[in-house]
Amino acid sequence: MAVKKNRLGFIVAGLLLGILIAAIDNTIVATAMGTIIGDLGGLDQFVWVTSAYMVAEMAGMPIFGKLSDMYGRKRFFVLGIVLFLVGSMLCGTAHSITELSIYRAIQGIGGGALIPITFTIIFDIFPPELRGKMSGMFGAVFGVANLFGPLMGAYITDYWHWRWIFYINVPLGLIAFALVVFFYKESHEHSKQKIDIWGAATLVGAVVSLMFALELGGNKYAWDSWIILGLFAAFAVLFVAFLLIERKAAEPIISYDMFRKRLFAASSAAALFYGAAFITAAVYIPIFVQGVMGGSATNSGLILLPLTLSSVVASQVGGMLSSKMTFRRIMIFSASVFLLGMFLLATITPETSKLVLSLYMIVTGFGIGFSFSVLSMSAIQGMELRQRGSANSTVSFLRSLGMTVGITIFGIIQRNDFKGQLTDKLGGAGQAIPANADPQHLLSPETRALIPPQVMEKISSALSLSVDHAFQWALIPVFFALLSVSMMGAGRMQFSQGPSARTKGQSH
């Protein structure tokens, strides 16, 4: 018995390391991007470094989730680790932004396998009474990644070299690889099934078209340019084709049958709306602190500390409560607190103290945190073994899609409002600010020192109002998240699902 428990501990350690390197990677890279551009050049192409990773990750999530249902979790988790590590090592050797973007896409494919499959394995190997606790622990990893990623990225870049932000993944990934390969043994058989090739192709094409349209629109190309309109048109055509193909596919990547289950459909919708609102808070709180309060951009991890810590706590609490009450009750409380937190953030002004802002962040983070652990469990609850991977990856995909669409839409709202406010407060001088100007760069400590105090006050006021308006608009997806979770029904963690899950967990 002790040996089996130890084996389970090794599996958990491997999964934690695997999901940690995938979750923390983007935050580290974002921190070092200025140094990377200074070394490799390509200022006009740096957006591809992030876009390539996100496109590959999002496109891979539902595909790897389905494949893990068909052929087993282990092989695709291991494949994800290998691809992520190969991509990391190649990124460390990049000599141009183009090379780095290509290698980041390889990393993204690996990340698309790691994140959803990890949560599915947890559901497979742990008994129901422990799933909540473990999901809370793994959900907290994302909070830890958001906290320590920027700090690690800054330290490694300043004291080692930016290439080490990629090389550091290798030893951690190799340990995760070894632990999972040697200690995780799946206890069920898998039969070969027909792969939905056309479904995969149209889904990838649709995601790629949408991501590039959102990333390039308003930055490299105007929103009404033929390139952006063409990308949106390609997304629409390919997405409709995907929906039609999935209706007739023998083994669809995303099965419509899953959405007929009330709990899964409500959890998926909630994940989409939570993602859209969460990313708005995570992006614009640091901008407010830096641009309005005069904080430093280098301590972005510390700026979000109250938000991060409260979300980590809520993730753990949500996981534990899942074994005691319905998912609906937990998530209605979560969405209500989230709604209150976003409402409070929408009231901040230049006169708001850092203490009050921290309290608002604590409320917001506590509301967000439940979704990290609970939605992953509620989406899988009641699913057959060979649907769990697809179900979990679909929820992860929709959360990422919500974040991408959310930051694009609310980013447009904030930038346009910021420029309009500047024009009103500064007159013609406000027109000199580009529509896509980044407030973090515009209001850096170096820039602020060169601006007269009376002008600085007006710019800070304009930025504060524009961030407030972004938070006000972000209340809409939070409201829809509350509406979604209210439709979850009476579903709760089930403690009797055929063979003992405890036996399964100890057999691995």
Plain-language structure description:
It is a multi-pass membrane protein. Its main location: membrane. This protein has helices at 2-40, 47-71, 73-92, 97-125, 128-159, 164-167, 169-183, 197-216, 226-248, 256-259, 262-291, 300-303, 305-321, 327-345, 354-380, 388-426, 439-442, 445-449, 453-485, 501-507. It is mainly alpha-helical. Helices cover 78% and strands 0% of the residues. Helix 2 runs antiparallel to helix 8, helix 3 (73-92) packs antiparallel against helix 4 (97-125) and helix 11 (262-291) packs antiparallel against helix 19. The relative contact order is 0.13. The model is unreliable at 496-508 (pLDDT under 50). The chain contains 20 helices and no strands.
Structural class, please?
mainly alpha
Strand content: under 5%
State the share of residues found in helices, binned by percent. over 70%
Question: Could you state the oligomeric state of the chains shown?
Answer: single chain
DSSP, total strands: 0
Instruction: Provide a count of the helices.
Output: 20
Task: Give the overall shape.
Answer: globular
C-alpha-based Rg, rounded: 23 Å
* Major pleated sheet: none
Terminus-to-terminus distance: 11 Å
Helices, strands, pairings?
Layout: H1 2-40, H2 47-71, H3 73-92, H4 97-125, H5 128-159, H6 164-167, H7 169-183, H8 197-216, H9 226-248, H10 256-259, H11 262-291, H12 300-303, H13 305-321, H14 327-345, H15 354-380, H16 388-426, H17 439-442, H18 445-449, H19 453-485, H20 501-507
Helix pairs in contact: 1-4, 1-5, 1-7, 2-3, 2-4, 2-8, 2-16, 3-4, 3-7, 4-16, 5-13, 5-15, 8-9, 11-15, 11-16, 11-19, 13-15, 14-15, 14-19, 15-16, 16-19
